[in-house]
Amino acid sequence: MTRRRFASTICICLFVFSCFSLTVVSDASADLAPVSLHCEYRVDPLGVDTPEPRLSWKLESDKRGQLQSAWQILVASSPEKLAADQGDLWDSGRVESSSAGPIEYAGKPLTSRMQCYWKVRVWSGAGNSSDWSSSASWSMGLLEPADWSARFISMRDDSPVPTNPKTHHLPPAKYFRKQFNVEKPVQRATLYSTSLGINEMYVGGKRVGDVMFAPGWTDYRKRVYYNTFDVTDQIDKGENVIGAIVADGWYSGYVGFGMLVGYGPNKIGRNIYGKSPCLMAQLEIEYEDGTIETIITDPSWRVTDKGPERQADFLMGEYYDARMELTGWETTSLDDSSWQEAILSADNGDWPVTFYESGNKYETNLAFIRPATLQSYCSQPVREIERIEPIEITSPAEGVYIYNLGQNFSGIAEIKVKGKPGQVVRLRFGEMLHQDGRLMVENLRKARAHDYYVLRGDPKGETYKPRFTFHGFQFVEVTGLDEKPSLDDLTGIVLHSDTPLISTFECSDPMVNKLFQNVVWTQRSNFLELPTDCPQRDERMGWTGDAQIYVRTATYNADVAAFYTKWLDDLEESQFENGAIPGYAPYPFKHGAGYGTAWLDAGIICPHTIFQVYDDLRAVRRHYDSMKRLMDFRASVGKDYLGTVHGASWGDWLSIDEKTPIDYIDTVYWAYSAQLLAEMADAIGETDDGAEYRALREKIKAAFAKKYVTADGKLTVDTQTAYVLAFFMDLVPEEHRKAAGDRFVKKLMERGCRMTTGFLGTRPILPVLTSIGRHDLAVRLLQSHEYPSWGYEIDNGATTIWERWNSYTREGGFHSPGMNSFSHYSFGAVCEWMFRSLAGIDTDGRGFKRLTIRPLPPTPGSNPDHKVIDWVRASINGPTGLVKSSWRRTADSFELEVTIPAGTEATVYIPTVDAKSVTEGGKPIGADTVGVRSVEVTDGEAIYSVGSGTYRFKASL
Ligand code: BGC
């Protein structure tokens, strides 16, 4: 999209350049402090498997106008060497650069298992050196296949592949263990573990780490992640036990809508990748005397399926029989003679089956396949993030108790119960209640989402929470209790990928504040191992259309650099032979045509966003060939530089009353992808490609104008979505922008200022209104409470973003329960505009190294229905540090407090027609205003170049 212009577009361009450059402070004390050291986007990661890990930091300063002019990194092989300032692995020397990362390690070659300790110091613009930062670390993973001596092991499984697609097949979790002896003092112990299926590891009687659903979801036939844990403190002298509990997870459990539509082996919807879970673990113990002992999974391990998790499935839930707990199984106290010998997974033999998927069936084999690639887990894992206390209990029928947690989220419930041995307590989960108070579960489709707890009968009471499932819910229905439970007998536990939350947003409209909270909760609920579409029903897939719409908002709300680094690999892995990117990634089975326009463009839009927000050139290089293949595919289906109807026809999904033709959408997305790939090609030096993609874009733009733009500047496809996509992708010829913009606004107003847009059209609608000079209308849409609008959902009780604008109404109840998620992030993509245009925070170029602060207050009285927003307070702790923008508008003044992180600069736009009235810190801006330089005055804005620090601007309006 072209840069937006403020309402008055005739720029007077006075160019009031002051004759001084940005004033910097230069007293001799440390100007800058490097903090928040990250390696591969994480803090002190273990098991990094990229040979040149990327390092980055943030800068702090209590002075204004601080830029970094140089850095020096030391990487040492021991903490002692680092403390003595010896970078025996890498001493970068002083490198003249303002970048605080990501910087690729460029020292001695790194090999498997190396421990690396590092620190950095920086020089300011005035040439003052900082102190060394605190030290940080990373360790290398297992880089070569030969580093693995462990084997995949399984429990012997003689059972046939189920054949009945109508009933549940829910095998118990498997417990694996092995005893070993430690006689010498331990220097360090590292566990590398993975599974086909999901695992929890135990060493020395204790759970290892706090990762849930390890090792995550990949196409296990090709690739699997492994986790690395430091378990030094968990090894005891003498006899020890290493163990694991392994459940089906995505490997052999129910996945997506497989059961609903009859996909998978024998149409059963499960066992998508294999029949029986497999475990591989390698515990490397380094003794103080320098010797190393390695404990590996092999047939000497013992295994049983007689543990308490009788069922353990993501979609269906867990059935936990506490009477079957294997007390002491993770310690030496258990006699495991009744357990079986584990076998090599390959020895489970063959399970030939017919695999069914959309319009297709083929013969395959569910036998164990060792994934060719073992990759270190490179994202923040799923963890327990927060505990939520219920706000009320209701009882719609005798013995039925429903807890209301007050918030829709993804996770599990922990329950405290008392009762007889064998008593069964059932937990059902739902996002909503029916109007008569019953739990609403129709929208879960085939996701049973029941957890069962069978009591052991402890008179002191017992507590249960599941390990191998999660649900999307606000309400928990409990049955099977002897008496009414109390509020504190149940706690909600929020689970998601532990991507740090970085944003705040508040303004004068309480509904918009709630909207922001709802967007963040929906992101949290769906960023669980992959960007899912929803956490509750039998889907939870990485739908690519949703992902590309939302990815930029995601980067405003959380640090998702590592999360997307991982998912971009999953995305590329799912790419079809013909270059198309499927409708979802990972891609367990084909659905419909498998891919569709705008969904497949996630293969370019998502890497581009990560490249842009995090200055991530590696993501571009890594996925460059895949992106080119995708563009080749686009060229193969395009005709005369116009898009065509191909693949699935999701189009502007869930639009209202207006359908935008697929070939139109395909054309604009083709142009958009060409433009983004051209930028990325240039950035990595592939300038010939860059020129080619730019030329392609121009040709598409010309073909678009010819086919879709009339002589009087209207579009032949007369839908709101057609207009906003054309503007957003910058395809409206300059001379027709005014007419096309007017037509679009007319259409909008003819509908009473209401949207008809679906997933594709809603993301750009407010940005486009702002860019065509109708920002007041954009704010009016944001603040609307009329159907369809964000306010309408909130008035009807939303605590998350709904899949449909009318998923539920207080008068009409539920709409289309079969496809009606109450936690779908796509319409939440409006949040990007809230930060960029309302708060005014954006990166200028790549990586937030230079910022744009351009808050756009709406005109007082411009909204006939509501008091317009007259203040905003927002912040993001972005890739280069904390950015804040808070403004307040009165009838005749505009105040802005802005914080720019050390090491960066910003262009700050103050809306005013009287540039002379602008003050900073209560004083007119002049040569003595530290950190501020006047750049330009237009007829609507005074523009300043501002260094790091906090500034308080005030202007007359
Ligand atoms: C998903 C969507 C997805 C769509 C494809 C739905 O079932 O929940 O979010 O993009 O299918 O049209």
Describe the structure.
The chain has 957 residues and is an alpha+beta fold. The chain has 16 helices and 52 strands. Strands 20, 21, 27, 28, 29, 30, 33, 34, 35 and 36 form a ten-stranded mixed β-sheet that branches. A seven-stranded antiparallel β-sheet has the order 37-44-45-46-52-48-49. The chain has a six-stranded antiparallel β-sheet with strand order 13-12-15-10-19-22. Helix 5 (544-557) packs parallel to helix 16 (830-839), helix 9 (662-683) packs antiparallel against helix 10 and helix 13 packs across helix 14. The model is unreliable at 1-28 (pLDDT under 50). The site of beta-D-glucopyranose (BGC) has 8 residues, from helix 5. The site of beta-D-glucopyranose has 8 residues, from helix 5.
Rg value:
29 Å
- Any idea what the shape is? globular
How confident overall, as mean pLDDT?
95
Number of helices: 16
Oligomer: single chain
Unreliable stretches covering 5 or more consecutive residues: 1-28
Largest sheet: 10 strands, mixed
Bound molecules: beta-D-glucopyranose
Q: Strand fraction band? A: 25-35%
Structural class: alpha+beta
The end-to-end distance, rounded to whole angstroms, is 28 Å
Task: Throw out a few tags for this protein.
957 residues; alpha+beta; 7-stranded antiparallel beta sheet; 16 helices; 20% helix; disordered N terminus; binds beta-D-glucopyranose
SSE diagram, text form:
Layout (H helix, E strand, L loop, with lengths): L32 E7 L14 E7 L7 E9 L2 H5 L6 E2 L3 E2 L6 E2 L10 E10 L11 E4 L13 E2 L19 E9 L3 E11 L1 E6 L2 E2 L15 E8 L7 E10 L1 H4 L5 H4 L2 E2 L12 E10 L4 E5 L5 E3 L4 E5 L3 E5 L18 E2 L1 E2 L7 E6 L2 E6 L7 E4 L5 E7 L3 E6 L2 E18 L6 E7 L1 E2 L5 E2 L9 E5 L7 E3 L6 E9 L10 E8 L5 E5 L2 H17 E2 L1 E2 L12 H14 L3 H13 L28 H13 L2 H21 L24 H22 L3 H22 L11 H9 L8 H14 L8 H13 L3 H9 L6 H6 L12 E2 L3 E2 L15 H10 L1 E3 L6 E4 L17 E8 L2 E9 L3 E8 L4 E7 L7 E2 L2 E2 L7 E6 L3 E6 L2 E8 L1
Parallel strand pairs: 14-26, 21-33, 43-47
Antiparallel strand pairs: 1-2, 2-6, 3-4, 3-5, 3-7, 7-8, 9-23, 10-15, 10-19, 11-14, 11-17, 12-13, 12-15, 16-24, 17-18, 19-22, 20-21, 24-25, 27-36, 28-29, 29-34, 29-35, 29-36, 30-33, 30-35, 31-32, 37-44, 38-39, 40-41, 42-43, 44-45, 45-46, 46-52, 47-51, 48-49, 48-52, 50-51
Helix pairs in contact: 5-7, 5-16, 6-7, 7-8, 7-9, 8-9, 9-10, 11-12, 11-13, 13-14, 13-16
